[in-house]
Amino acid sequence: MSHVTPAPGNSRPWKARLLSHEMLLLYVLLAEWLFFYFAGTTTNRRGVVVGFGTWDRQFDILRHSCEIGLLALALTPVIITAGIDLSVGSLLGLSAILFGQLWHDAGLPIPLAIAFTLVLGALAGGLNALLITTLRLPPLIVTLGTYSLFRGLAEAITRGSVTYTDFPESFLFFGQERWLGLPTQAWIFFAVAAAVWLLMHRTTFGRSFRAIGLAPEGARYAGLPVGRRVALVYVLAGLIAALAAIIYTARLGQAKADAGTGYELFAITAVVLGGTSIFGGTGSVHGTLLGVAAIAVLKNGLACLPVVMRMNAAEEMSGLLTGALLLLALTAGVLPKMLSKLRPRRHAPAV
Amino acid sequence: MSAAPLLALRRIAKSFAGVRALRGVDFELHAGEVHALLGENGAGKSTLIKVITGAHQPDTGEITVAGQPVSELTPASAQALGIACIYQQPALFPDLTVAENIALRLESLGALGRVRWSARRTRAAELLARVGATISPDAEVRSLSMPEQQLVEIACALGAGARIVIMDEPTASLTQKEQHLLFSVVRDLRKNGVGVIYISHRLEEIFALADRVTVLRDGESVGTHPVADMSEGALIRYMVGREVAQIYPPAESAPGEVALALRAVGCASSGVRDISLEVRAGEIFGLAGLVGAGRTELARVLFGLTPADTGEVLLRGQPVALRSPQDAIAHGIAYVPEDRRRHGVVLDLPIAHNMTMAIHRRLFPTTWLRFGAERSLALDYIRDLAVKCSSPDAPGGSLSGGNQQKVSLARWLATKPRVLILDEPTQGVDVGAKSEIHKIIRGLAKDGLAVLLISSDLPEVLGMSDRLGVMRGGTLTAIFPAGTDAHTVMAAALGQAEKGAA
Amino acid sequence: MSRYFRELSVVGALAALLLGLAIFAPAFFSPQPLLSLVTREAPTLVVACGMALVIISRQIDISVGSQFSVCSVCAGLLAARGWPLALVLPASITMGALLGAINGALVAGLRLPSIVVTLATMVTLRQGLNLVRQGEFVNMPDAIQWFGLPQATGQLVLVALSVALLIALALAMRHLAAGRFVYAVGTDAEASRLAGIRPQLVTFLVFVFIGALTGLAAMMNIVQSPQVQPLSGAGLELKVIAAVVVGGVAISGGRGNLWGAFAGLLLLACVSPALTHLHIEAYWEKAIQGAIILLAVVADGLRSRKAGN
Amino acid sequence: AADSKLVVAMLPKSKGNAYFISCKAGADKAAKELGVQLLFDGPTDSNAAKQNEIVENWITLGVDVIAVAAENKEGISTALRKAQKQGINVITYDADALPDARAFFVNQATPEGIGQSLMDEAARLTGGEGEFAMIVGSLTAANQREWQKHVEARLKEKYPKMKLVVVRPCDDLKDKAQSEATAMLSANSNLKLIMAICSPGVPGTAEAVKQAGKAGKVKVMGLGLPNENRRYVKEGVTDSVILWNTGDLGYLTVYAGAALAKGELKKGAKTVKAGSLGTFQIAGDNILLGKPFIFNKGNIDQFDF
Ligand SMILES: Nc1ncnc2c1ncn2[C@@H]1O[C@H](COP(=O)(O)OP(=O)(O)OP(=O)(O)O)[C@@H](O)[C@H]1O
Ligand SMILES: Nc1ncnc2c1ncn2[C@@H]1O[C@H](COP(=O)(O)OP(=O)(O)OP(=O)(O)O)[C@@H](O)[C@H]1O
Ligand SMILES: [Mg+2]
Ligand SMILES: [Mg+2]
Questions:
Q1: d(Cα C86, Cα C88) in Å, to the nearest integer?
Q2: Most exposed of A142, A276, A316, D301 (fewest Cβ within 10 Å)?
Q3: What are the structural domain ranges in chain C?
């Protein structure tokens, strides 16, 4: 009774902002991190501090997040235009193979091979774009087809077995060493993240992606080049997937047809966890980054917990908890709405 | 009238997340009457209807059907009580056949009930015949035109043997002929003791059809009166709470040079053919015609949505190719579309974003967003067009229909067009907003814009146009000067007149 | 005719493939491999039927693979404990229905997008199973093999069961009110609500139903071999979605039928044995299946574009 | 923290695989005897990237010994070198990494030895002539490729009258192996034998042959665990299964790892002691488990793993 609904003045946006999806996710991330910092750090037999609370571990987390993080960045604009791209994981595999071939079989120098691989990745994304925009086919189905096609091509090209290895040290530097204190690939990841953030949040491109996601016909009537914008999003996804393939190859020192298997699902999970609506229109790049971080910290933190270690089940636990976190994030968005729907009816007679 | 009303609503209230759509409405419907429901946009008419059909649960209030209080009305139970509704937007299943659509409404099969396809078909054919529609029961609904779909809806209501039939702006997209057909169906219903609730923004229909009228204002009922006791002016006063002059603003300047000229323009895929006309700067060229005459299709051709495949379009004497909306915008053509909720505004985006959507290139030449410039532009238009909104950041969907239309208009004015195409700019807009929009249009013409005004509201095209074209079957059949009488124009639209002078 | 264009074209493609095989690899048509093919695909067909329903109702379920694994392992463990078949079978179906009910409650009850919900349950179920079982196989008692029938009879029973289910469901979708409700909800949930259907209930039940079918399919699979492998459901979801979509069920809901899904499944299932019989290297299998999916949708896209203009 | 147990971390290629599960049984036994803590974690599917991540995790956890069955030689070696740099003792088992990335390799049998045993056994079963087919785990698994290579080399060298007509992958799924084998049988009517070189492949193939009614006419053999194949061996569908004792492999690996950490095993040593199994020979840096073993109807009941 004494409860007064806040007047729609200055206090509301503040509160709303502190309770926005991204902020909630940030709290979760901090809580996760602190928990693992205290529960996952120990001193080992030799008296060395080991586990989650070491810089090495933090850098590893960063290193391991780059490829899936890149794919999640690639998928954010796609999902904001109300599309989906299931083929990014397969394209990572295909690009890794193409890169290996260009370098090893065609004898191109590494920089040139990278450049060609990126172009081929963009072209593969262009195949998705072509089918989706010119024939107006549902992205889910098109990319389900290319998901199979790209992986199949990678296997067919290598006859399943050719593995490209023996990359030069200078190339492996990108995946295995540090530069200016951070894992080298993290710099690339941050650069791409910044670029995608600016694209999505500070340019007319992001604006039009949103409009297309919310009302594709409306965007067309507003004179936005809908086809070109949608195509751009898929080409960009292909390009970033190829970049992720390069980093993957540099990290493992090998290019093989099974690279990136199942990564698309992790990436989609991260994007959705980050607050991007699967129906398009809403979402943010920083949300995606938080989603990637939340999953990565969870996965790596669990692996440092003694209990989990004794169960030999870090992978399973983190998968389980990621699924649960995703469900929580989804329901968290809906439950308050459902509750507020119930509330007025319950109090109505008293008024 | 009889003692127990067919339907009685007491103090019905309903809010949506803070919006109080209904604040306590009282309403009564008797058997054998046509009861009109009137009110401005957003007055709560549709919401009230949805409460009656069980689509919305009221927050408070009582509903009595034929003397029996009902609680927890659902669409299914409302149907069982004999309540049928024809919504503003037909709520049919586009992928299913007409027969199946009708059956889904009428048959209350258990989940394991068997579907009798041939019986469904015969029944559908019979009902369609009763409403005078020549539609095959096997046609998929997506292939039907809007009025045809409306007829299917009415057939459903008839078939349900409904005691209470609700029509929410049923004539918004009907042709004159179909409208007369509809009227006779309504009168038929009344004769058979059915209570009809009839919603329309067209006052002349209410005078032609209704027995009583209830006016809603801001979610409250402000009174119920026999229609015979009311005058148009009085009704409008009730609705708006003030006087509104229903006078169209006159032309104030002479037209200048020819801004837009079409020479035998046609587009096979959209059924538009052989159209020649000229619109001068500062002139309002009206386009009248029945629904389906192809006016929207012509507009889409001019805006590059379905590019022309024959003929020539000239802008200020120069032939131009209009292959896409981007081309059209670049040449100074703007198009305010008919379906404002789907095409005109993106409901989930802020007003400011909506207003700048067509001028990304000009406002943000480097593609870099300039929030300040955007905001001040939006504020300018909000002030100039008197858009009622809380801020430029409010989502388009939070506005009433008329204000959404103004946002849509602002988007196109921002492109600084030389030719403005308006497609049904006042459809579903209340009287107050309507006359404001008329004033804006006239003002634009005065500033030298060439305006192509498409409207199915005959008084509107007649009153606003400096010249008037009539379309029929995808082509232009006649062009009349201002001041032509309604009868002549209607006759041309129906194809009963000889070709007018061009 | 044009209404069934998609179904007919898939049947046409299948016929062409079979014709090619008849010419170049007649051995394909000897009874043993054919029987083996259909026996192996029988459980997949059952899941595909469920998936067709889900997609017609404008939802999607990518958790079926995980559900399949969970049901398989649970049923296997029960059987290994000595439960009789008569109890294991309903237990497996119930298990599936329960898992489906979780999806259904989240999608229908809380109105969450099914693709994300089932993505989450897919991951959760799969990892939960791995956590508990660490990937271990379950050894099954002989009594469960082929439903306790002789092998040849057992095979026929499996095939007959799945085909009977297909026919029954296809007829139900056309001639029972419940089937029409699924189409109505998939076409337009709001319109069906106004027509007195309860779309949320229909959606919920569709998820329960595919869960139950998955439980049945898991059972049909584990009776075929003496060991249950927990990975057995991996990739099942994409396989059935591809089959259903190739068979002309529109991902946007409301359109398509089970016959098409059946033809789509057969087409995709024939690729692998066809490669072996045509002595084409196995490496091409995935690429060819991807190409079939793309061709099917491209054909559709071209046709509707032509029709649209 | 002050828990001063030695920590041995063992990485299988795929931890759900029955092969590695039986490895783990032996490893557990050794860990108990030695009083060391055993971590046994790996991908659920064979995934090289995941193996790297797990090793890197163990490095930051500062375990004492890492024992790896490498899915991919080059891929894992970088991580292993890093581990060595941090003072962690690294050995490999089952599948080797690059020699400089580990101290010792617990060699259950050389790929060459396996390839030769497989081919020789196949020749013995078919009488040295006729067509045969092969089912492999996945097209991308490195050790499978290696074995296949040695089978083919032996074939070329010693059995000119035999012909390998088809190779198909079964994705480490028994069901898939079964349907692949069925298709093989009908596509190649002259088939005399099917060799499956992944553990789910052998029972899958046996089931297919049995269902096709060709038991005895088409021989089945391959690499697999006795328990998985017992039923078919006894029914006479499967003729022989080749494998080393996987439990012993796990056992020896843990003993060797612990010895290395305690400084009892040094470079250049000629033997290593492994509890109840006695002493094992070391050739160079390869600790030799012994010869692969052929299970058949006669002896299979003596083994339980
Ligand atoms: N589902 C909803 N959620 C939030 N607000 C709503 C919803 N439906 C209606 N409203 C609001 O309730 C008010 C009444 O709307 P309603 O559609 O009943 O008006 P109306 O009289 O039918 O107008 P019109 O003449 O434009 O059809 C409006 O302010 C509208 O924005
Ligand atoms: N010749 C034709 N061929 C095919 N479809 C047509 C043809 N003429 C009209 N239509 C269809 O009829 C519908 C109505 O046409 P249109 O919108 O052009 O009419 P209008 O005169 O603008 O009427 P409205 O008042 O509804 O705007 C559209 O869906 C259009 O596609
Ligand atoms: Mg309304
Ligand atoms: Mg129109």
A1: 6
A2: D301
A3: 2-301
Across chain A, mean pLDDT equals 88
Contacts C181 to B, Cβ<8 Å: 111
Does residue B16 have its Cβ closer than 6 Å to ligand 1?
Answer: yes
Give dist(CA C278, CA C299) in Å, integer.
26
Work out which ligand 1 atom sits closest to the CA atom of B48.
18
According to the model, what pLDDT value does residue B88 have? 66
Looking at all shown ligands, the one closest to residue B300's CA atom is: 2
Long-range CB contacts for residues A133-137, cutoff 8 Å, separation at least 24: A133/A227, A133/A228, A133/A230, A133/A231, A134/A227, A135/C297, A135/C298, A135/C301, A135/C302, A135/C305, A136/C301, A136/C304, A136/C305, A137/C297, A137/C298, A137/C300, A137/C301
Average pLDDT over every residue of A170-197: 93
CA A19, A25, A31 angle in degrees (round to 5)?
110
Residue in the structure block whose two tokens are 């397969």: A90
Higher pLDDT: D251 or C141? It is D251
Both tokens of A316, joined, read 């399973």
CA D41 to chain A, closest CA, distance in angstroms equals 5
Distance D53 CA to ligand 3 centre (A): 59
Q: Domain map of chain A by residue range?
A: 51-329
Distance from C-alpha of B296 to C-alpha of D5, rounded to nearest angstrom: 82
Scanning C245-264 for CB atoms below 8 A from A yields: 245, 251-252
Q: Nearest residue on chain A to B325, judged by CA atoms?
A: A223
Ligand 2 atom having least distance to the Cα of B289 = 21
pTM: 0.86
- Is the sign of the CA dihedral B210, B215, B220, B223 positive or negative? negative
**What are the domain boundaries of chain B?**
7-240, 258-493
B7-240 shares its CATH topology with B258-493: yes
Going by DSSP bridges, is the β-strand pair B34-39/B7-16 parallel, antiparallel, or unpaired? unpaired
Measured CA to CA, the distance from residue B96 to residue B459 in angstroms comes to 38
Q: Which residues lie below 8 Å from residue A244, measured CB to CB, with a gap of 6+?
A: A66, A67, A70, A71, A74, A88, A92, A95, A260
The set of chains that have 3 or more CB pairs under 8 A with B is A, C
pLDDT at A344: 46
CATH assignment of B258-493, given 2.60.120.260, 1.10.1740.10, 3.40.50.300, 3.30.300.20?
Answer: 3.40.50.300
Q: Which amino acid is at D223?
A: L
CA distance C226 to C296: 38
Q: Confidence class of residue D29 from pLDDT cuts 50, 70 and 90?
A: very high
Cα(D19)–Cα(D13) distance, rounded to whole angstroms?
10
What does the pLDDT average to over B417-421? 95
Q: Which residues of A touch C130 (CB under 8 A)?
A: 313, 315-316, 319
Give, using CA atoms, the residue closest to atom 6 of ligand 1: B16
Alpha helices in B285-388 (DSSP H): 295-302, 325-330, 351-356, 360-363, 371-384
Classify domain B7-240 at the CATH topology level: Rossmann fold (3.40.50)
Q: B388 vs C304, which has greater pLDDT? A: B388
CATH T-level topology, domain C2-301: ABC transporter involved in vitamin B12 uptake, BtuC (1.10.3470)
- CA pair distance B340, B407, nearest whole angstrom: 10
Judged by CB atoms closer than 8 Å, whether chains meet at A42 and D75 is answered as no
Mean local confidence (pLDDT), A82-94: 96
Token pair 């205290």 is found at A38
Residues of chain A with Cβ-Cβ distance to D15 below 8 Å are 312
Q: Which atom of ligand 2 is nearest to the CA of B298?
A: 18
Which fold does the domain A51-329 belong to in CATH? ABC transporter involved in vitamin B12 uptake, BtuC (1.10.3470)
**Average pLDDT value for residue range D150-170:** 91
User: D35 pLDDT exceeds 60?
Assistant: yes
- DSSP assignment letter at A6: P
